[in-house]
Amino acid sequence: MKHVTLSLAVLSMLCVVRLAQADPFQLPGGGAVAPDAPIQYLETAYGSGWLGGTWFSDQLVQIAFVGDTATGTTGTYSINSVGTTYLQVGSTTATFTDTMAVFDNQLSSPMPAAGIGDVTVGGSVLDTFAPDFGSYNLIGGIGPVSGPEFINSGLSFNTTAGTFILEADPLCLNCGTSTFTAIAGGTGDPFTPPKVPEPSTLTLLGTALIVGFIGLRKRWS
């Protein structure tokens, strides 16, 4: 009887450990999220892994897309991407070719989590654990919120730059923390700043304006 009791206790401990390590993106969803304006969701962290067969180490990884809250579900709140899901690893940019989604799981363990998941593959790409997500439902902006990260170490995701894989890397000095941000009304590629004319272009433009102004003065006189 003692052996049976001990076995049941060990089994219970294993179940608790497995639950604590469960992918927050895998838990089931529910009904509809109230429609709202599109929101740009951004998940960032330092990480190591593979992109297109090339190893990267301790690089800033950023994932972002615009979500339409009218397509969302509640329970584990989830919203599919609208258009392009952008990826930047260090200075390399790409886009995901899988169907992507943002989610907020208020009931995940060890604490609420939000992040970016791959609907095609069926798993999280990069998530953030933080108490702030216990009352967040993806409607409206939040953050930046930082906390312990979750990655599916070794799981492959498809991008235009090849397969993207995050790995657990004990040598990565900055790994372990991620940041989730939602920007209401944000649209487009967050990694491409607005284009500013080169100094030479500005000089030519200024010269052209001066010459044109002198020409107009001569015509007026």
What do these coordinates show?
Strands 1-2-3-5-6-7-8-11 form an 8-stranded antiparallel β-barrel. A hairpin with a 7-residue loop joins strand 5 and strand 6. The protein is an alpha+beta fold and 221 residues long. It is built from 2 helices and 11 strands. The N and C termini lie far apart (112 Å). Helix content is 19%, strand content 41%. It has one domain.
Summary, kept brief:
With 221 residues, the protein is α+β, with helices and mostly antiparallel strands. 19% of the residues lie in helices and 41% in strands.
Q: Number of DSSP helices?
A: 2
- What number of structural domains do the residues give? 1
| Largest β-sheet summary | 8 strands, antiparallel, barrel
- Name the shape in a single word: globular
Biggest sheet: strand arrangement: 1-2-3-5-6-7-8-11
Low-confidence stretches: 1-20, 28-34, 193-211, 216-221
What structural class do you assign from the helix and strand content?
Answer: alpha+beta
Our Rg estimate from Cα atoms comes to 24 Å
Strand content: 35-45%
